[in-house]
Amino acid sequence: MPFLLSSRIQKSVVLVAAVAVLIVAVVASILLGLQNFRFSTAVEAYVSFNGSNEHLIIKNARVPRAIVAAFVGGSLAVAGALLQALTRNPLASPSIFGINSGAAFMIVLSLFLFGPVFSFTELMWVGFIGASLTAVMVYMLGSAGRGGMSPVKVTLSGAAVAAFASSLTSLLMLIDNMALEEALNWLIGSVSGRDLRHALLIVPYLVCGWIIAWMLAGSLNLMSLGDDVAKSLGQKIVWVKAGIVLVVVLLAGGAVALAGPIGFVGIIIPHICRYLIGYDYRWIIPYSIVFGAIFLVAADLISRFLLMPKEVPVGVATAVIGVPFIIAIVRRKAHE
Q: What membrane topology term does the record carry (predicted)?
């Protein structure tokens, strides 16, 4: 597939421009919505806070929401890029590893067993644990048997575990209406209602995931040539794949725990990045971080205006955007 940016200078300039766009998107997310604010008001909320409704909304709602959207979007995009490299499946995303389903099942199970005694922070950690355990289970199932891990085995294992976890989640929610009501807002995927305390608990894990992903970029480039070629060049394939799974757990698990199962970001953004810069993961990783952040911040901003004065959860907005994109990918692959 041809790509648009060939030289290092072109890629660097576009990446810097994308960072500028991200800053603009974050500022717009802070200032625009059901209530619009001036930029000076946002600055005053931190420089000379006076306890007014405007300052409270900016500090406690808009700024955390924009920050969460940026980190979650970038993390889901990188996780999707890594999973597509691991499974060699262009439609791979965190959901293929059962991340979403595992996190949802653990949260609903906790609500079913213990009732609404958990705070949001505690539910967030429960979701992170569920996502992590599910990803490890899929990795072990995909590595079992002769030949070790293969793209087909991982894909089938992920689909089976995700379907099983989703079925159990539905069963628990049918049995206990309270669990249904408590979990519904989280399950639909949203970046609203989070504060900086929630973000600061998860963001360090996401940043660590970004760093490890970039450190794996050279190995991912070799793996794209095939496992046999990578082995002949000295790559320890098993350890590289285990590292990929670890990063996916950190990024996708952390993102899902913080914002719920937001779909399609991990599918859309890696394809856009590869279209722009090709298959060099030393560039795909930083591009995915920035473009994923732009995408989710912009989607969250757009979702505020779709049904004003009500807000559409960002998970719905990304699904509306993502479905036509996936159809386009499938049609293009069918004609290759």
A: Multi-pass membrane protein
